[in-house]
Design a protein that fits this description.
8 helices, 3 domains, 35% helix, alpha/beta, single chain, globular
Length: 211
């Protein structure tokens, strides 16, 4: 199941998409030691597993996996590319009162997670609009190693969170250069990457931002 999460993270897939890809792609099956016709974990099973793993130290597990990739020379540390993409979720049919409660950060009482109805209700999804396109769901903020193109950092938020709001969470001490489009550029971001001791994983060394 952890290997499924690895596929999901490095390919930027939703729960439903990774389920579909495992059943369809021989490379995914081989990675998971599956054969055509074998049972594939469904999206709900993956969600349950990830939730349980996050309670028990998901970040530590992925950090250890990252260390293994570095020892194999797969992470070049020549620079990092930061970008974000929408992950659309099924649009829900809620009452006006229910939507108002969710907007205020409250989960409606009838959406009890222990009930079948409650398990189908996601109260963390939000609406967002970009380039005249409307999205409902989440946003995946990813940092990619410029040399290997492997994802080396990620933050998931609701769709309405602006890209620049999580930029600082993706700056590590090993990032010798940061490449991002203009939406990330600001005086605050530039000060952050150039200020020693501000990075979540130590000081930021020789940081730069490119458009």
């Amino acid at each position: 199941m952890f290997k499924v999460l690895v596929l999901q993270k490095f390919h930027g897939l939703s729960d439903a998409a990774v389920e579909e890809q495992i059943a369809d792609r021989f490379s995914f099956m081989a990675f998971l030691s599956l054969r055509p016709g074998d049972a594939v974990p469904d999206a709900n099973t993956l969600w349950d597993f990830r939730e349980a793993l996050e309670r028990d130290g998901n970040e530590r597990l992925f950090a250890r996996f990252g260390e293994m990739l570095e020892k194999q020379g797969l992470i070049g540390h020549e620079g990092s590319i930061v970008d974000a993409s929408f992950v659309d979720a099924p649009r829900q049919r809620n009452t006006r009162e229910q939507n108002e409660s969710i907007k205020n950060g409250e989960r409606p009482a009838e959406f009890d997670k222990d009930t079948p109805k409650g398990r189908q209700k996601d109260c963390d999804t939000k609406w967002a609009q970009k380039n005249k396109e409307t999205h409902f769901g989440y946003k995946n903020h990813a940092k990619v190693d410029a040399k290997s193109k492997l994802i080396i950092g990620s933050v998931t938020t609701s769709a309405n969170v602006h890209d620049s709001q999580v930029f600082q969470d993706l700056v590590y001490e090993t990032d010798n250069a940061m490449f991002a489009d203009s939406v990330y550029q600001s005086a605050e971001s530039e000060r952050y990457v150039l200020d020693p001791g501000q990075s979540p994983r130590g000081k930021a060394i020789d940081q730069s931002m490119g458009s």
